[in-house]
Amino acid sequence: MIVKTIFKWSMWLTLIAMSSLCLLIPGAYAGSILSAGADHVCGIKDDSTLICWGDNSQNQADPPDGTFKEVSAGFYFNCALSTEGTVACWGRDTAGETSPPPGQFIQIETGGNHACALGANGSPICWGANDSSQVSYAPGPFQQLTLGDAHSCSLKADETVECWGDGSSGQANIAADTFSSIVAGYQTTCGIKTDGVAICWGKIEQSYGYLTQIDYGMMGQETSSVYTGSPIFCGLKADKTLSCPSMDTVPSGIFSYVTVGGHISSYLGGCCKNITYYEFKGFACGIRENGVVACWGVNNNDRATPPVGITLKQPTGFTPPSSNTACSGEPVAVIGEDLSLHVSKAKYNTLTGTQILWIDLTFGGANEAGDLTWILSNYGEVE
Hints:
By secondary structure, the chain is mainly beta. It folds into two domains: 3-23 and 322-381, no CATH class; 34-302, Methylamine Dehydrogenase, Chain H. It is built from no helices and 29 strands. It has strands spanning 3-7, 13-17, 34-36, 40-44, 50-54, 68-73, 77-82, 87-91, 107-110, 114-118, 124-128, 142-147, 151-156, 161-165, 179-185, 188-193, 197-202, 206-210, 213-216, 227-228, 233-236, 242-243, 255-269, 275-288, 293-297, 330-335, 345-349, 356-366, 372-381. It is globular and about 65 Å long.
């Protein structure tokens, strides 16, 4: 739901609720500015410095100093692309994954325990674990890279996909489609086709409808056939609301980016208490239209509790809703609060009167008629 508010100083606040969405936001973005690993998250702040939270047992939540334009989280390590085009990595180092090569690059991607970077000429270079030939990269040229647990995929100039590494579940198969972007998770590869439909192949084979940005959860290698749960898939719809089909609770509101993480939890069970069960426990985080991060899902190590008071960069090409766009709607509620008291939050009922929401307003100046305009910057359900 989009809300537009226009009123005069010292007048009662009238909220207009839209029965249909009238603001569409371009889905263009370049590079990952928020990325989730097994139990941690890293993002790029407004000043281009890095911030991480969650599990720090492997120093994966202690980012380096400097300014960066991309960040990518593996299981327990991360790599980031500096504003100068060099790569820095930190966290657990089991196979050299935190030792990137020197040089200038235009994209950085991490997998389970390996990483790849894309050069300006479209040629990749990979490092780290190579037990499934996941760093034995194809020569390119490519326009995008994406890495899963132990496989790697690329988007070629002709919009087709090429993969290498572990293909035990079909995740390295070449999909017979053309794509605008691709993403990989645990034994699964996904992409947004050039017709706008998001599909996945490999461990999970499914179509998710029309989406503008997607992410798929990573996790450790499963070692038992007694396994429950599924890695999480999330995406943004054309109206920039969230779509996370396998999650019970998803926040409302406008988002510019979404990322998914998680881990496998093991426990003993069965009739004889000697069978090990494995369960995927996932979470997700997204950037709201005002740059504030929201996270949801299983909150191990406070990975779904982002720091308070920080805002992240917005993806390239993201345009938040504008109060200058004319929409029509029905008056929903009148809030009895004088604006001279500086209204920053208000509550209102929807048309049905069954749901309470909160809103954040920012002052947008005066319009041609001399009315003071306030712009909706955030909103959601009252918990």
